[in-house]
Amino acid sequence: MTATDQALRDLDTLEAEGITAFTSAGQPDALEAVRVEFLGMKQGRVKLAQEQLKSLDPAAKRVFGQRFNAVKTALEAAFEQAKLASSRPTQVVEGLDVTLPGRRSKLGHRHPLTQTADELIDIFGRLGFTVVRGPEVEDVHHNFDALNIPPTHPARDPADNFYITDRMMLRSQTSPVQIRVMENQPPPVRVIAIGRVYRPDAVDATHSFMFHQIEGLMVDTNVTMADLKSVLRLFARSYLGKDVKIRFRPSFFPFTEPSVEVDMLWHGGDRWVEMGGAGMVDPNVFKAVGYDPEKVTGFAFGLGIERLCMRRHGISDIRLLYQNDTRFLAQF
Fold it and tell me: Model confidence over 48-102: pLDDT tens digits?
């Protein structure tokens, strides 16, 4: 046997012993010891095998060098694989009964406000109203001007609104959607607008700086206040139950005339809580969108979705709806 043949056989032995050692090392400390033994930079067995190149003739060096590189690569790969395996947590499963049925994963469900909004859409849909939506970042014209709210009106005060620029703001009501609909659709109109609105109110049990509204608009010939009251009573009975008590109080809104506040009796007690505002559309609003107030009349209403949800489910604090407590949300 030539010296070259013996050197190649030694490389085969080195590869086999190294791979076996890395595979069986197990713990990180033992693996590190094997790495030093085989791949150490000074006295590792791979390093010592490389020294044999000096004693070989040029032709043998080429053959030995190719085999040496292959062995070194194989041992380095064995080390990396063993290191990866040693870093994985081991999990021992005892007494696994594969015949048992699997555990059903817990699924989430819609937020109570989303459930409420969907039910309101369904109720008003049965009353002939179509859903429309509008932007939450609104211009002052649609949020105030076209709704007959003059520049000096306190509702436009910067302390009561979230202004972005002099002419842009986060909408303070869903009424701007009414304007957008009437600007693009001739009467008759029967729509509801639903979405988030923003007002810098102090947060308490029944107020929040961000909340949800559902806005209704009906425009046609001979629409009266009686129609408005009938729609709201039908809605209240459909959503809150036949025993619900609501009342209408005279009020004032720049965009309706006459105007009313709609209250509901809170949780069967003697406390009345505002459900929303409503009234007959002011003629100036019709003029702003190009409708002839001599030919059409209409009513509009805006209801707070949070308060309806709270009244329906007996929730006493609006803040519970926004705390993301799964123990609370799982009840709905």
Answer: 888 877 777 777 778 877 887 888 888 888 888 888 887 766 555 577 777 888 8
Q: Domain spanning 112-329 has what CATH number?
A: 3.30.930.10
Q: Which of 106, 96, 110, 86 is nearest to 35 (CA)?
A: 86
The stretches of 134-247 forming alpha helices (DSSP H) are 140-143, 175-184, 225-240
Q: Cα separations (Å) of 141 from 95, 132, 257, 281, 300? A: 71, 19, 20, 17, 19
One DSSP character per residue, 111-145 reads -HHHHHHHHHHHHHHHTTPEEE---SEEEHHHHTG
- Could you tell me the pTM of the whole model? 0.67
Give me 111's structure tokens: 């937020």
Nearest to 19 by CA among 34, 7, 40: 34
Domain boundaries, the chain: 3-87, 112-329
For residue 205, give Cα distances in angstroms to 172, 239, 261, 307, 318: 20, 22, 20, 10, 5
In contact, 139 and 171? CB cutoff 8 Å: no
What separation in angstroms does the CA of 102 have from each of 93, 98, 110, 199? 16, 9, 25, 49
